[in-house]
Amino acid sequence: MRRHLAAAIATTLALATAPTFAAQDKPTPSAKELLDASKPSEWRTPDPDNLLYMQLPTGRVVIELAPDFTPLHAANIRTLVREHYFDGTSVNRVQDNFVAQWDDPASDDDHPDPAKLKSLGKAKKTLPPEYTRAIDAKLPWTELPDGDVYAPEVGFSEGFAAARDPATSRMWLTHCYGAVGVARDISPDSGNGSSLYAIIGQSPRTLDRNLAIAGRVLEGMPLLSALPRGPAPMGFYTDAKQRLPILSVRLASDLPPAQRANIQVLRTDSTTFTALIEAKRNRRDSFYTLPAGKLELCNIDVPVRDGGKPVMP
Amino acid sequence: MRRHLAAAIATTLALATAPTFAAQDKPTPSAKELLDASKPSEWRTPDPDNLLYMQLPTGRVVIELAPDFTPLHAANIRTLVREHYFDGTSVNRVQDNFVAQWDDPASDDDHPDPAKLKSLGKAKKTLPPEYTRAIDAKLPWTELPDGDVYAPEVGFSEGFAAARDPATSRMWLTHCYGAVGVARDISPDSGNGSSLYAIIGQSPRTLDRNLAIAGRVLEGMPLLSALPRGPAPMGFYTDAKQRLPILSVRLASDLPPAQRANIQVLRTDSTTFTALIEAKRNRRDSFYTLPAGKLELCNIDVPVRDGGKPVMP
């Protein structure tokens, strides 16, 4: 029965106004039922120019870049990847309930020796921040109905959790679980994509609009989220042996099609995605005594499948 | 410089209305500065009758029970602990961005064999749900100013993240990171504290008021949050060898004082706690270009120290 419990916990919500659920009542369709009924046209295959394969000793992390939000960072990261800059770097910092960060280990010294730093090659050393972009009617927008503590409007655009402020006509990607951000130094233009972090805990939305978000992890989050936390302040490892080596990072478009993953992401402007949100907001089943009737931005997973099989969120 | 960056990322926020931070400006005090200046009277030593020490092969997890919110569950868990019920149980389920759950492994079968289940001894098999309790002016309440997607009011009471609904005069603990919940089967009275879970990812607030929260983890979260995720649906392990054994669970009050941890928790009705929240909401320093000016319930850590040393959040 615990598995039954777990299933209910993992997927359930119900109408705040719902009467007690009776045996003869029809439960809200599950995420699996909704996805099984989805149309092929509701799934998109990410552009291979936006897909990064990060090979770790423990497996592969797949990241989708977000060039419509951070185009200069996407371009610089592609340049670094094509130079094999990340090959031989490592995950150097894992802070519990916050981030896993990977970069050139030499850059993590308090006063890095420039002679020891990996060359950025043709990649730019500084970039305009790209923390926000103009709201554009050409970008799809699926708005959530329940509001947000941090932003006037929240929703999804092109598969990414995002926020908007009509007063300034700006929009930006949000630091939800799995978001991949661009680390920087004090100067806002000091982020260049050579140091990246993934959110592995409660979404630190206070970072929104203060750091550029390059994309999000589509597959392999547990390879980052389950890493040993670093013993030093902010989760830095104290011994080079604790660092997880990054064997390689490649762009899907640089690999022969036969070596590419067959990854698809549910369109966040699809009928099925809207139905998933509604089912989670207003789920009715035999488990829940009091439904939330609401749903917060970072509580929503955008479904991904690889080779037709669902990627476990 | 990356450490500088990390420090800023880990602690920063600034006034939404703040002018550009200038070199001569005084930055908002850091969490460390505020805690270093705190008074001894602002820290409380949890009642040893409410402190659980869960000994894992990898270290110790310390959990504080919340008897003012879930008294019957606290009493039943104390009974189970004094019977050494949990000794020899295990963490049987770790679902990425959701929960780590521990209990009698035999109970995780789809149709558990009653003959194989551990005896609950004198502990009750069923309990009233205790999902919410009446608002009581005698309970301290530190309310947050920035609202919440899921509840009319949110804040802290006796060290626990909580929510209130004046319309119903009820309050309840919330499923923030580190909350320890009581797993149950379909029937609301089927939870008894013999199966517990800790939140290890984005707070699944949709569980609020549908499951009893027994308390929260004060120390040792990484021992649960960094565990390998289970390969089966909902993060169940598929092989008994994957399960992490629980060597023992003891109440601090059942140990000689010399064997007890010297744990203190910052009072959430203290001036310093309010100052920490304000500093995080409205932080100003050289790193942040745009402050949030707001702060969400589950983005706030309640400081804990063990032997005078801060417990890393």
Automatic annotation (TrEMBL), chains A, B:
<keyword id="KW-0697">Rotamase</keyword>
<feature type="domain" description="PPIase cyclophilin-type">
    <location>
        <begin position="57"/>
        <end position="253"/>
    </location>
</feature>
<dbReference type="InterPro" id="IPR029000">
    <property type="entry name" value="Cyclophilin-like_dom_sf"/>
</dbReference>
<dbReference type="Pfam" id="PF00160">
    <property type="entry name" value="Pro_isomerase"/>
</dbReference>
<keyword id="KW-0732">Signal</keyword>
<feature type="signal peptide">
    <location>
        <begin position="1"/>
        <end position="22"/>
    </location>
</feature>
<feature type="region of interest" description="Disordered">
    <location>
        <begin position="23"/>
        <end position="48"/>
    </location>
</feature>
<dbReference type="InterPro" id="IPR044665">
    <property type="entry name" value="E_coli_cyclophilin_A-like"/>
</dbReference>
<feature type="compositionally biased region" description="Basic and acidic residues">
    <location>
        <begin position="33"/>
        <end position="47"/>
    </location>
</feature>
<feature type="region of interest" description="Disordered">
    <location>
        <begin position="102"/>
        <end position="123"/>
    </location>
</feature>
<dbReference type="GO" id="GO:0016853">
    <property type="term" value="F:isomerase activity"/>
</dbReference>
<dbReference type="InterPro" id="IPR002130">
    <property type="entry name" value="Cyclophilin-type_PPIase_dom"/>
</dbReference>
<protein>
    <recommendedName>
        <fullName>peptidylprolyl isomerase</fullName>
        <ecNumber>5.2.1.8</ecNumber>
    </recommendedName>
</protein>
<keyword id="KW-0413">Isomerase</keyword>
